[in-house]
UniProtKB/TrEMBL annotation:
Ranges where the DAGKc domain occurs: 2-137
A single GO cellular-component term on record: plasma membrane
UniProt GO MF annotations: ATP binding; kinase activity
SMART domains named in the record: DAGKc
Cleavable signal peptide: none
Record's protein name: Unannotated protein
Organism phylogeny: unclassified sequences, metagenomes, ecological metagenomes
Sorted UniProt keywords: ATP-binding, Kinase, Nucleotide-binding, Transferase
Pfam family, one: DAGK_cat
Database matches in InterPro entries: ATP-NAD_kinase_N (IPR017438), Diacylglycerol_kinase_cat_dom (IPR001206), Lipid_Phosphate_FormReg (IPR050187), NAD/diacylglycerol_kinase_sf (IPR016064), YegS/DAGK_C (IPR045540)
Organism: freshwater metagenome
Amino acid sequence: MSSPRHWVIVTNQSSGRGRSEAVKQQVAAAMGARGHSFDFIDAVGVEDARKSIDALLVSPRPIDGLLVIGGDGTVHHVVKAMIQSGRHLPIGLIPTGNGNDFARQLRLYGRTIPELIESFTSDAPITIDILEIHDQIALQVISTGFDATVSARARRMPRAIGSLRYVLALLLQLRALSTTRYRFVVNGITREVEATLVAVANGRNYGRGMLISPESINDDGVFEVVVVGPVSRMKLLLLFPRIFSGSHIDHPLVETFQTMNLEIEADTIAEADGEPLLSNPLNHRIRTKQLRTWRMA
């Protein structure tokens, strides 16, 4: 057992249809059994969590680490607030969201509470990459073009639909399928492409386990760019199921490349980890930044 430390545990009460409250009690018991002290921040929604973290991180009180009980949206906003504060605390994630893509990347999804707490309190944190876009961040994937419009539409649908929201949104959005002109600057070289969508991937998956970039790992100092060229509605429908296995990257209409930084311009919207990112048009530089967290074997 490690020496006692002081933690702040952030819970999003609206995450995962209210599962966070029950998980919170299990986490408190597991932390107390290991002799660690902790304070809770009980937030209602991701914006409330972000504001609470903003206030906490400017206080002088010593904190050894943050634990986040929630989903992708909650941890996205907590990490963003921490980075903007200039502090670099390790963050452990206890997944209770609907997608949990960041937890899947770190092999935390499906673990028991005792297993997670044992790792967070006994193992040294690792350093991983995240994406930085101006004053925003992304833990997993920045989606743009058709992909982002589908995600935005799915987010407006009732949560009761569950995992079918994205598929239903895709079918409805097909009527407005179009391409976007992108301008990239990669390693000083400028190129322009016409694409249906472009995804900038730090992690393998998004959208509840869809393998948009199956070869991405988040501690290699680079990220992958996945470009889907102009495609008809029928071809897109045939291509879409392959994203669940990652085999879409072998399709001739799909291009992938790696880079350490990227300048991207396009007349389209973008999302980061399923959160609205930037207003139209997109015109920003993307590069890697570092975060301390835990990944299980």
